[in-house]
Design goal:
Largest sheet of chain C: 7 strands, mixed
Radius of gyration of chain C: 27 Å
Largest sheet of chain B: 5 strands, mixed
GO molecular function, one term (chain B): oxidoreductase activity
Organism (chain B): Fibrella aquatilis
CATH architecture of the largest domain in chain B: Roll
Number of helices of chain B: 5
Number of helices of chain C: 20
Structural class of chain C: alpha+beta
Oligomer: heterotrimer
Largest interface: B-C, 57 and 59 residues
Protein name (chain B): (2Fe-2S)-binding protein
CATH class of the largest domain in chain C: Alpha Beta
Number of domains of chain B: 2
Helix content of chain C: 25-40%
Number of domains of chain C: 3
Keywords (chain B): 2Fe-2S, Iron, Iron-sulfur, Metal-binding, Oxidoreductase
Structural class of chain B: alpha+beta
CATH topology of the largest domain in chain C: Aldehyde Oxidoreductase, domain 4
Distance between the termini of chain B: 34 Å
Strand order of the largest sheet of chain B: 2-1-5-3-4
Shape of chain B: globular
Chains: A alpha+beta (about 260), B alpha+beta (about 180), C alpha+beta (about 800)
Pfam family, one (chain B): Fer2_2
CATH class of the largest domain in chain B: Alpha Beta
Strand content of chain B: 5-15%
CATH superfamily of the largest domain in chain C: Aldehyde oxidase/xanthine dehydrogenase, molybdopterin binding domain
Shape of chain C: globular
Radius of gyration of chain B: 16 Å
């Protein structure tokens, strides 16, 4: 498998990366979403801008009430981070369910989010935890809530020349949270991924990956649960269907995994 | 473009096409053919090597991305004698032989490199830990039974840390907020 | 036949000797075809049909030919003088008409039609793989897309798209075997209970981890070709390619099968790419390499199984099987691959007796063309399909009749026969089993399971959300393939003997050449164990050479669990010749009669004395014949061919225990028990490994694997992101044990172990899920394989 020819450029700084992307380059972080599609010749960027070494995209730190995860941090590093385990334990266990160990050693949270595979694991967790995606573009930095970030099948609120730099997540001290996943056994992507955060005040946030064309927050379920009704996950949503899980079955699983998530809190 | 890598302890300077994958660089430029290609989708793990001490799938990495890094392949896992011949095998290599953890041998280098990564993080893995760690490596011959036993054998027969290099390059820089 | 096991004091045979071949694989020094680089080597990439059925209207290579580094592009017009890939087995229609054998062309020429997605149209040869890939994409082909069919049952319907215009009903041949259908109909009509099952034995992809790779290298000075190929049988490839495809002289062709990364059947067959790189290397006088991508492998490597079946088993009021009536449609794909016609017929229909005394059996088989890649032998080849059919019926019948499935089997088992003092067992479907003792394998399986405790636990589980189920499968298979006269009468176009050469070097070291090919089976260890024991010398003194047509006279290769039973027997014949001649030399040196000598521990001793001469001294004498028997040729080097007297018939019992999540339908395999009787065992460690691997593939078919074709006959799950094979975390540790009933007709008493795991396991897993569902009150008869969670969930909720 050989990709189409392209030019490889390594960004020397965040500013350099933004400039190169403005010139029409495509950002390359861990490459674990992008390179496989390029090898299958489903994707043919002319210029790849390697942002994998930018210090600005690295590290996990607390900033006031927020946990800040660099976009270039690998899934494996998130799974292993003590800070994450302490303040956002769902992120640590959830990251540990992505792909396989080698994929987790290279694949990054920013790259996964930018790719916006509907069956990826991060989106449900980010939406449930009310994360904010920070992007840098030619006209500066802007922030979008995860809930608004994922707009459709492989599409996001990002502009073409923007780069995700950080993921900022409110500390959830005292909250209970879990991510429960039913995997496709070959790809290990989520058929259904259900993230639930129960805050100290008892309020719930529920989000799903894998179920619909875009990951989504299930406000119906949140309302039903807070009023003591029986929850009906993904009601009114358009549900994905494929050889492995039909629409009907996937919707059924969404409810099963919602209940499992609630039970696991 | 020119890339500089340290591969199995040896400095290498090579001109490659920008689109060259790390696995093709290892196999074709360096003739290190112990690293294999078994699929097109980063699924099978036959291409697993260590990049700066952690297991990666070399089919999903540009050689350019590894510029300046240190790579260990299956050929670099055993200790070499001063004359360059194979010396003391790595406990995992011994374990795979002791426990019949391989048949056709094609997935074996990737299995061993993945297992070496596991044992660095978790020197005494349970059967469950081992099976989870192997979820990105496909073997079609063994049914994994003896691979699991081989890794357990290696864990039981390892006195010292398996590789000196514990450096994890992906998370070393503090975040700027 | 002398029983070698009883005669020799064995040091190595029966021991779990660690494999001698391992060192190169664990250190990265294995040498697979794609690892080989020859001076001046060029790289090939194929232009392939994106459609399952389409006519090539025109081909425009202008842009591709102009690309720097492109050396040549060949199309069907360039190779129209080459023959097609031949089929190695002829099965005739029931009415005697010859099977339909469409030409399988090297490349689809302008005006011709591609018959499956991936059918090649052009070969692009360039200085690098990257250039060849880029250039192949620049070849412009105008296509006229035509309707296509992938499902074999659909292909038989009136109005179905035609694969070959000249065969409008898409039938390759029809065939039947067994008792006259009237007798079977009568037995079924008289039955107190008939269990009926309509099911699909789905198409699966072998997926050897090493993709196929070939290097053709022509040397104009010597006018010799060398083909490096990832094959299971170098000589067979040479024969097919030279005699049938390229029409080049065999003595000018060397075929080398270096290290090969698994085969499971898919690397038996001769493929167009092998012939084309060999042919192209002559056109260009440069070596040409092609290595398959995994995506190409899904499209082009021969697939396995793909039967659509209705099966009925009749029982009398006491539960005795009275009859078996089967109607099956089997998919051949677009072209007839090397062994394809034999798989659903002589490797499947002949196994439908199973372990049971069923008095009346009839199978009606129709083999059809579809717009898919060829279906051929895949691990087990026909026997897994036969076992699946019988064992699904047996467990389902037990559930329907309220009988215990183990008891029902015990009741119907063929009684013990050893094939020596008692004759072999003559089945209703042509074969005569060599030896069998079926009760002990099931008894041992039940003991390992803890059957009574299991049923108690199952009752408790039925009150929860996690159902438990147990599935049984007791199988017999035919391997040690195969007696040439028998298979010749059945349509094989080749003999299925094996050859071996034992060359004793002057210093007493031994080189053994075998026509078998090891691609994971461990021949470099097991064959050496046999030779070392038989000669009484250290294993270090013996080396095995395989995989090179220039090294050995001939060979038929490795498939059908035949290597040790057939190839090993050929080695024994050569060793017998070495010892016979050695005795003459020893007698001369010791000044005694040959009859006074006995051979043991690597030396000939004059009986009752301490006078002896070692194997090494005799070898040296043979090559330095100064003091030597008059009239005896120098040298100690013997070739042999061994043609087996019969197939061998391993058997066993596989038991699966599963847990089914009632909410999701997800099945977890909790235990897999296998008690196999593969005859005598040379290396228990290696035999266990073979069983493990077979189990995983059989479990894979039951739970995970299966092709999915869309309405245009496009494979929609042809990557490892979509086609699921078992991973480490999908499987439990296997529980294996063994019983030993020696093969009565080969010198080692061995039967073969390569396929058994894949033959028995599949129905046990499906039966276990069905059993779990019945325990929860869901009386379903069948769940399609692979039993995805949704299918199991639907079975519980429909």
């Amino acid at each position: 498998m050989i990709t189409y020819p392209f030019q490889y450029k390594r960004a020397s700084s965040l500013a350099d990366a933004v400039a190169l992307l403005a010139d029409g380059g495509k950002a390359l972080s861990g490459g674990h979403s992008l390179i496989p599609t390029m090898k299958l010749r489903l994707n043919a960027p002319d210029v790849l801008v390697d942002v994998g070494r930018l210090p600005e995209l690295k590290g996990i730190a607390l900033d006031g009430n927020e946990l800040v995860i660099g976009a270039g941090v690998t899934h494996g590093a998130i799974a292993a981070s003590d800070l994450v385990k302490q303040h956002l334990p769902m992120f640590a266990t959830g990251a540990g369910q992505i792909g396989d160990p080698s994929v987790r050693n290279r694949g990054t949270i920013g790259g996964s989010i930018a790719h916006a595979d509907p069956a990826a694991d991060w989106p449900a967790m980010l939406i449930a935890a009310d994360a904010t995606i920070v992007m840098q573009g030619p006209s500066g930095s802007r922030q979008v809530k995860a809930e608004q970030f994922f707009t459709g099948l492989f599409s996001t609120a990002m502009h073409e020349n923007e780069l995700i730099t950080q993921i900022r997540v409110p500390k959830h001290d005292g909250a209970k949270m879990t991510y429960q996943k039913f995997s496709q056994p070959a790809s290990r992507y989520a058929i259904v991924g259900c993230a639930v955060v129960k805050n100290a005040d008892g309020s719930l946030r529920v989000a799903f990956s894998g179920v619909s064309e875009a990951p989504f927050r299930d406000k119906n379920v949140e309302a039903q649960l807070s009023s003591g009704q029986t929850a009906d996950a993904a009601a009114g949503m358009s549900i994905l269907s494929d050889h492995y899980a039909s629409e009907e079955y996937r919707k059924h699983l969404a409810n099963v995994y919602l209940n499992r998530a609630l039970a696991a809190l | 473009m020119q890339i500089n890598l340290t591969v199995n302890g040896k400095a290498r300077k090579t001109d490659v096409e920008d689109r060259t994958l790390l696995v093709d660089y290892l196999r074709e430029n360096l003739r290190l053919t112990g690293t294999h290609v078994g699929c097109d989708t980063s699924s099978c793990g036959a291409c697993t090597v260590h990049l700066d001490g952690v297991a990666v799938k070399s089919c999903t990495l540009l050689a350019a991305q590894a510029d300046g890094c240190s790579v260990t392949t299956i050929e670099g896992l055993a200790q070499l004698n001063t004359n360059g011949t194979i010396g003391q095998l790595h406990p995992l290599q011994e374990g795979f032989k002791e426990c019949h953890g391989l048949q056709c041998g094609f997935c074996t280098p990737g299995m061993i490199m993945t297992a070496a990564d596991l044992l660095k993080r978790n020197p005494s893995p349970s059967e469950h830990d081992i099976r989870e760690a192997l979820e990105g490596n496909i073997c079609r011959c063994t049914g994994y039974h003896n691979i699991v036993k081989a890794i357990q054998w290696a864990a039981d027969h390892t006195a010292a840390p398996l590789l000196a290099d514990h450096h994890v390059w992906t998370n070393e820089v503090a975040v700027t907020v | 036949m002398t029983n070698f096991f009883k005669k020799m004091s064995n040091k190595f045979i029966g021991q779990s000797i660690k494999r001698v071949e391992d060192k190169r694989f664990i250190t990265g020094k294995g040498r697979y075809t794609d690892d080989i680089v020859l001076p001046g080597m060029l790289h090939a990439h194929f232009v392939r049909s994106p459609y399952a059925h389409a006519r090539v209207v025109s081909i425009d290579m202008t842009e591709a030919q102009a690309m720097p580094g492109v050396i040549a592009i060949y199309t069907g017009d360039d190779v129209k003088d080459l023959n097609g890939v031949p089929c190695g087995w002829q099965v005739n229609f029931r009415n005697g008409e010859t099977m339909r054998e469409p030409k399988h062309p090297m490349l689809i020429a302008t005006g011709d039609t591609a018959k499956h997605a991936g059918d090649p149209v052009a070969i692009v040869i360039a200085e690098s793989k990257a250039i060849a890939t880029d250039a192949a994409e620049s070849v412009q082909i105008e296509w006229d897309e035509l309707p296509a069919v992938a499902n074999p049952a659909e292909a038989l319907k009136p109005g179905a798209p035609k694969v070959h215009e000249q065969f409008p009903d898409n039938t390759a041949f029809d065939w039947s075997l067994g008792n006259p259908i009237e007798e079977v109909d009568a037995a079924m009509a008289a039955a107190a209970h008939v269990t009926t099952l309509e099911f699909v034995n789905q198409r699966v992809v072998p997926n050897a981890m090493e993709p196929r790779a070939y290097i053709g290298a022509y040397d104009e000075v010597s006018d010799k070709y060398t083909l490096y190929t990832s094959t299971q049988n170098p000589h067979l490839i040479r024969l097919l390619m030279c005699a049938f495809v390229l029409g080049i002289p065999e003595h000018k062709v060397r075929v080398v099968g270096p290290d090969v990364g698994g085969g499971f059947g898919s690397k038996i067959y001769h493929y167009t790419e092998e012939a084309l790189v060999t042919w192209a290397s002559k056109q260009l006088s440069q070596p040409v390499k092609w290595t398959s991508d995994r995506s190409e492998a899904f499209l082009l490597d021969a697939h396995g199984r793909d039967h659509v079946t209705k099966a009925e088993m009749g029982f009398d009021a006491d539960g005795n099987v009275m009859g078996l009536r089967i109607k099956t449609v089997a998919n051949m794909g677009a072209y007839l691959s090397t062994f394809a016609p034999a798989v659903p017929t002589y490797l499947h229909g002949t196994l439908l007796q199973g372990l049971y005394v069923t008095p009346k059996i009839n199978i009606d088989m129709t083999c059809v063309f579809t717009h898919t890649v060829a279906v051929d032998a895949y691990r087990g080849a026909g026997r897994p399909e036969a076992t699946y059919l019988l064992e699904r019926l047996m467990d389902l019948a037990a559930l329907e009749m309220g009988r215990d499935p183990a008891e029902l089997r015990f009741q119907n088992f063929i009684p013990k026969f050893d094939g020596v003092t008692e004759p072999g067992y003559q089945t209703q479907v042509a074969l005569q089993y060599d030896s069998g003792d079926y009760h002990p394998v099931l008894e041992r399986g039940l003991e390992m399971l803890g059957y009574a405790d299991f049923r108690a636990a199952q009752k408790e589980a039925a009150k929860t959300n996690k159902l438990l189920g147990v599935g049984f499968s007791t199988y017999v298979e035919a391997c040690g393939i195969a007696p040439s006269a028998v298979v010749g009468a059945l349509g094989a176009r080749a003999g299925l003997y094996e050859s071996a050469q034992v060359r004793v070097q002057p210093t007493g070291k031994v080189s053994v050449f075998t026509g078998s090919h090891s691609h994971g089976q461990g021949h470099e260890t097991t064959f050496v164990q046999v030779v070392a024991d038989k000669l009484g010398i250290p294993m270090e003194d013996v080396d095995l050479v395989h995989g090179d047509s220039d090294a050995l006279a001939f060979g038929m290769g490795t498939y059908g669990s035949r290597s040790l039973a057939v190839g090993g027997s050929a080695i024994i014949k050569s060793i017998d010749k070495v010892l016979e001649k050695g005795a003459k030399i020893a007698a001369h040196k010791l000044e005694c009669a040959e009859g006074d000598l006995e051979y043991a521990e690597g030396k000939w001793t004059v009986k009752g004395t301490d006078k002896s001469i070692g194997f090494g001294d005799v070898a040296l004498t043979a090559y330095v014949p100064h003091v030597y028997p008059a009239g005896l040729e120098p040298g100690l080097d013997f070739s042999s061919f061994y043609d087996p007297a019969n197939f061998t018939y391993p058997f066993g019992c596989h038991i699966a225990v599963v847990e089914v999540d009632r909410e999701t339908g997800k099945t977890t395999l909790k235990r897999m028990i296998a008690v196999d009787d593969v005859g005598n065992v040379i290396n228990p460690m290696i035999v266990d490994g073979q069983i493990h691997g077979g189990l995983a593939q059989g479990i894979g078919q039951a739970m995970f694997e299966g092709t999915i074709y869309d309405e245009n006959a496009q494979l929609t799950n042809g990557t490892y992101m979509d086609y699921c094979m078992p991973r480490a975390d999908d499987l439990p540790m296997f529980e294996t044990d063994r019983r030993t009933t020696p093969c009565p007709h080969n010198p080692l008493g061995v039967k073969g172990a390569g396929e058994a795991g894949a033959i028995g396991s599949t129905p046990s897993v499906v039966n276990a899920v069905i059993d779990a569902l019945w325990s929860g009150g869901h009386q379903v008869k069948d769940i399609l394989m692979p039993m995805t969670p949704e299918r199991v969930w639907r079975a519980m909720n429909n």
